[in-house]
């Protein structure tokens, strides 16, 4: 079956930790540069936010002077007029500060949201260019987590965190200056108290951070389990696994709770200790200040203003230390996002300058020409290295060389696939690698056997050659695991062949842009893929220029129009996630209509093996016939009628073409084909 649904939740997938291990570590400055690089297009908004931030901070600092005036000129001098005047000034300052705060808050949070939206957009655009091998080796849950929680973390840090930190820095410096002007002696006293406060902030803050990280990891595991259970709900329920899954889930949630308890404990302790130290320090400073007032060294107003500034400065320090923790978290999140952004597609296009396009007029008689191709899945051969080769491989990796010994025989043109092999080697978990090695060898691989002797068997496609003339129909038959779907993957250039060449209308596909190759193929996988969306959106998915009429026309040709019209909102009916509201045959007809709308010259069809009821079967058969009219078709055949009507049949066995010809010739000439037809093909 063609693995169109590449993202699965297989246990054997590499975790992000393994992915991260392979990626180069980011330095703090590169992370900051990357993050603030996203602010560059919004210089105007940054300027407004910063101006508002400075103005609002100055307003709050000015308030201290207002308080001093109230105390000295109003209270102490018992002057009602001065009190009234001071009241108006203070209210004016408060209103001004509040307006500036509005702008500061609005634009800072706006910038956070903006940066987050931009990062999400570019991350998604990048992810959809990565080749399937990447998604086979990375857990979906991890990618989703980078998308959602990591970008959300950045959003809150850029929006709120940075704003709070900047405001606190301005406040702290301003308060410090005003404190020293008000009373130098008291300022020195405060300076003795500040380090006392910083010690618990540093020690306990570290503990809080460690436990936050651990609890984030545990939350990610919970997310992974929800993702897996809900996607596989049918299997879960069919095996009455609800209770067992719930128990397992409860265990994981309790794990989060346990971790959270430790984090909360340290956080609460931190708050309590900082409170004791800061309040004690303030009271001691206030006491010393009161003594100075009695000795008439400073005025009562000055003391009040001083305490006000000391509280502001203390608050600013607490905020800064909190934000530093947040920034560290954000740095981790940025690093995880940057790693994803730096992940390169395993398939690389040759330089734009030498890329050509296929002119529809120049389409040659031969639509596809496949010559002597070999292919091994990336990473599949690593398990087959001899201990000596493994040692060499590790050594060359340590020295930064990319080639593993098993790749050294490859031609320079296969460098992209070499890169992908190196990537996957780095990221594949050992269980996956072992599984792959086993599957590729069809059980022939045994521990302790000579690895070199096994090497040829790891090839999924072995020296395959065939041509498909324009307008002809080629059927591929073979046992499960013979390599039929892999051939499709190679034609669509999801992977590069290790040796040999594939030509599309006379041009090597490696010389064509990827989109140019793929725009010549319409793919109908065995399991029809339905996206969450309306019927129209699902059919029109393959062609953004398709009109409503084109979509209806295609649905009619695919014998889907009738059942679509019976849906509650016809073509606008929502199909639900993965098309849960449709039957198997209906999904297939939607997929066929999608291929009709695409109107591509070559069809890649993977005939469904799942049994449909007789009338559905007939509809799907007729729909496929419509689709294949006047098209070049390669079809992975599971039905007798398909092979009987094919212009050529290729019999694939363990990656080799072992027989080819028309049905009646092969049935007579090839034992394997005869056996295959008799046992496997349905009427
Ligand atoms: N992404 C992959 N990574 C590693 N090995 C793979 C991958 N996909 C398939 N294989 C292996 O390649 C071999 C050929 O698989 P392929 O899916 O091409 O077979 P198939 O003939 O289409 O089988 P089926 O009829 O069961 O779909 C199998 O041994 C399979 O285990």
Automatic annotation (TrEMBL):
PROSITE patterns assigned to the protein according to its UniProt record, in alphabetical order: ABC_TM1F, ABC_TRANSPORTER_1, ABC_TRANSPORTER_2
Domain ABC transporter residue range list: 443-679
Name of the molecule in the record: ATP-binding cassette, subfamily B, bacterial
Pfam hit, one: ABC_membrane
Membrane-spanning parts: 46-67, 87-107, 153-178, 184-205, 268-294, 306-324
Annotated region described as Disordered, given as residue ranges: 388-456
InterPro entries recorded: AAA+_ATPase, ABC1_TM_dom, ABC1_TM_sf, ABC_transporter-like_ATP-bd, ABC_transporter-like_CS, P-loop_NTPase, Type_1_exporter
Any single Gene Ontology cellular-component annotation: plasma membrane
Keywords linked to the UniProt accession: ATP-binding, Membrane, Nucleotide-binding, Transmembrane, Transmembrane helix
Predominant subcellular localization, coarse grouping: membrane
Highest taxon in the source lineage: Bacteria
Residue ranges constituting the ABC transmembrane type-1 domain according to the UniProt record: 47-329
Location within or outside the cell: Cell membrane
Keyword Transmembrane: yes
């Amino acid at each position: 079956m063609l693995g169109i649904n590449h993202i699965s939740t297989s246990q054997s997938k590499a975790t992000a930790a393994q992915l991260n291990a392979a990626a180069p570590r980011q330095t703090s400055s590169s992370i900051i540069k990357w993050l603030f690089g996203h602010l560059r297009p919004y210089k105007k908004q940054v300027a407004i936010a910063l101006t508002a931030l400075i103005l609002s901070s100055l307003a709050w600092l000015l308030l201290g002077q207002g308080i001093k005036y109230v105390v000295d000129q109003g209270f102490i001098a018992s002057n009602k007029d001065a009190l009234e005047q001071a009241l108006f000034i203070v209210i004016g300052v408060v209103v001004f500060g509040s307006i500036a705060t509005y702008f500061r808050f609005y634009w800072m949070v706006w910038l956070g949201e903006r940066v987050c939206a931009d990062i999400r957009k570019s991350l998604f655009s990048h992810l959809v260019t990565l080749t399937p091998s990447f998604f086979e080796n990375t857990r979906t849950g991890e990618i989703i987590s980078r998308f959602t929680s990591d970008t959300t973390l950045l959003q809150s840090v850029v929006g709120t965190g940075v704003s709070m930190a900047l405001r606190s820095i301005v406040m702290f410096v301003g308060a410090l200056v005003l404190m020293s002007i008000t009373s130098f002696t008291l300022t020195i006293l405060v300076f003795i108290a500040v380090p006392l406060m910083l010690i618990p902030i540093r020690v306990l803050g570290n503990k809080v951070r460690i436990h936050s990280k651990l609890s984030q990891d545990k939350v990610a595991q919970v997310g992974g389990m929800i993702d897996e259970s809900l996607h596989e709900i049918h299997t879960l329920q069919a095996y009455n696994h609800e209770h067992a899954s719930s128990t397992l889930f409860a265990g994981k949630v309790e794990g989060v709770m346990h971790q959270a308890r430790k984090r909360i404990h340290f956080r609460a302790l931190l708050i309590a200790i900082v409170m004791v130290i800061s309040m004690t320090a303030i009271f001691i400073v206030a006491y010393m200040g009161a003594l100075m007032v009695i000795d008439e060294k400073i005025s009562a107003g000055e003391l009040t203003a001083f305490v006000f500034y000391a509280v502001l400065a203390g608050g600013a320090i607490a905020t800064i230390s909190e934000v530093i923790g947040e920034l560290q978290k954000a740095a981790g999140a940025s690093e995880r996002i940057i790693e994803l952004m730096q992940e390169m597609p395993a398939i690389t296009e040759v330089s734009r300058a030498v890329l050509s396009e296929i002119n529809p007029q120049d389409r040659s008689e031969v639509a596809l020409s496949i010559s002597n191709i070999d292919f091994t899945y990336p990473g599949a051969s690593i398990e087959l290295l001899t201990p000596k080769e493994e040692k060499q491989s590790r050594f060359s990796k340590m020295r930064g060389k990319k080639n593993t010994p098993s790749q050294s025989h490859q031609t320079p043109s296969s460098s992209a696939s070499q890169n992908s092999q190196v990537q996957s080697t780095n990221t594949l978990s050992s269980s996956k690698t072992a599984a792959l090695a086993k599957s590729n060898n069809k059980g022939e691989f045994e521990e302790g056997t000579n690895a070199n002797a096994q090497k040829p068997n790891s090839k999924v496609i072995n020296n395959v050659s065939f041509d498909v003339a324009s307008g002809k129909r080629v059927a591929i038959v073979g046992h499960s695991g013979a390599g039929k779907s892999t051939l499709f993957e190679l034609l669509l250039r999801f992977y590069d062949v290790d040796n040999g060449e594939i030509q599309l209308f006379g041009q090597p596909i490696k010389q064509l842009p990827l989109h140019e190759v793929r725009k010549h193929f319409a793919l109908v996988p065995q399991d029809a893929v339905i996206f969450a969306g309306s019927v129209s959106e699902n059919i029109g998915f393959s062609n953004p220029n398709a009109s409503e009429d084109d979509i209806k026309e295609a649905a009619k040709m695919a014998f889907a129009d009738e059942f679509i019209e019976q849906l509650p909102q016809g073509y606008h009916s929502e199909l639900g996630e993965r098309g849960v509201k449709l039957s198997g045959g209906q999904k297939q007809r939607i997929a066929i209509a999608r291929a009709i709308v695409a109107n591509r010259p070559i069809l890649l069809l993977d005939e469904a093996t799942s049994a449909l009821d007789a009338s559905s079967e007939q509809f799907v058969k007729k729909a496929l016939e419509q689709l294949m009219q006047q098209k070049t078709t390669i079809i992975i055949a599971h039905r007798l009628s398909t092979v009987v009507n094919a212009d050529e049949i290729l019999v694939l066995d363990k990656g080799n073409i072992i027989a080819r010809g028309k049905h009646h010739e092969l049935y007579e000439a090839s034992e394997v084909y005869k056996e295959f037809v008799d046992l496997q093909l349905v009427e």
